[in-house]
Each structure stands twice: as structure tokens, then as C-alpha cells.
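INFO batch 0412 | record 1 of 1 | parsing
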Amino acid sequence: MREVLDPKSTATLLINIAAVFIYFFARMALNKIYKEYSKKPEFSKTRRKNSLKIFHGFIRFILVFVLVLFILQNSGLNITSILTSLGITGAVIGLALQDYLKDCVMGFNIIASHYFSVGDVINCDGFEGIVVYSDMKITKIESIDDYSIMTISNRNLDKVIRSSNIVDINIPLSYEDDFEKCRAVISTIAEKAKEIPGIERAELKGTQAFEASAITYKLRIHCKPAEKNQLKREVNYLIQKELAANGLTIPYQQIDIHTKA
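INFO prediction complete | emitting C-alpha cells
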């Protein structure tokens, strides 16, 4: 009676089955590790969760890829020619979808490297706003001034500044004014600025510079980046009132003209 499978085929089949069992065991272990890590406090933030999720999916893809290659090789197929064909096909597809792939790669880098996340205030080529949407291809930024929305491809987000909660205001005052009085008035302005809703902290940082027609003092306020422009306007108004109440004026450049009689 003729055997359905010869010993060599039986051994190949058993090895393939064993490889599948090893794959499922590795996947179960990977899923368990993923669940344990996702519960840790350091992964409570959305950015870290997304990075962990992407890394988990990438490892699972690698496991499947290795399993398929092993089974094909163990079954007697020449995987070298298959990989070569895949490489040529991938190169053609890559050229056709070059910009799309750049967007996806940059999108992955944004998530994995924690460039920013939805809710952060960023500055991109002079446009400052809140990130209201971000995926692997595009990012949408809403201006903190006029609520206009800029949609930008991720491949163009190579230089992004994440805005801080610090806003510096330079206050120029005359050389003729007593500098101790100037510092005292600005310190008073800082104390009153703390009472403005939204300002967390305000302080006089000191003398900033000696300009041609004024001494500049630096006032620093701390607030949410999304609210800084409006709060800066309110502090500027407070500065105007306090300077006027204390007899201080903001100097401006003047030109003296001398004529001969």
C-alpha cells in the first residue's frame, strides 16, 4: 500500500506545526507583556500609550513575517527569489507612493519620539496653534489667535517648536527715572498680574538691556500656552495703568536738530 506522506514530508509537516505553536506561544507572551506594561503609571499618557501600541504591532508583524519565511523555506521553496521579487515590487510602489510613505514614516516618528500630541501648542514655520488632530499622514493645527486651522502633511513637520508656558514682556523705561523706583513698580505689576485669571505666576526677572533711549526690564508670566496671547494683552494694559499711576512713561526715540543762527 502506498504511503500518503514519506518520512521527509512528515518531518517537514511536524516542524511547520511546531513553528506555528511556537509563534502562538510567543504572541501570547508578547500580549501579556503588552498588557502589563500598558497598566503602568508611566504609560498613562496618550503619547506613551500610542508608542507602546505601535511597537507591539510592529513586533507582531515581525513574528508573522518570520513564521511565513520559515515555513516557506522549510517546505523547500526558494525564499531568496521571493524576497528579491518583493524588493523590486516594493521599490516600484515606493517611488509611486513616495510622499505618502514619507508622511507615514514621519507620523510614526512623531508618535514614537513624542514630538507632540493632540492638545499641545506648537509653532510650525511661524504658525502657532493647538494640535487638534494628528494621524500617520496629516496634522491639523488651530491658531491660538483667530482659530483658523492649518492642515499640514507630516513630512513637512521636520522643524516644530512645542510652546512653553513662559511669556516674557520687555518694559522699556527712561534713563531719567530712578531705577529703584522702576523695579519697585514692575514688582507691583507682577503681584497684580497674578490676580488675572489664567496667570499661574508672575515675576520681575531684572534688567534686560541698556538700549539707546531706554533701560529695558523683563517681566515674566507663566500661563497655558493656548492663552498666552490674550493674557499678554491684559498684562500690557495693566502695565500702562501702573506706569501712568506712578508717573513713569515709555520713552521713544527722538531726534535733536541743531541749527546755526
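INFO post-check: The radius of gyration is 32 Å.
INFO record closed
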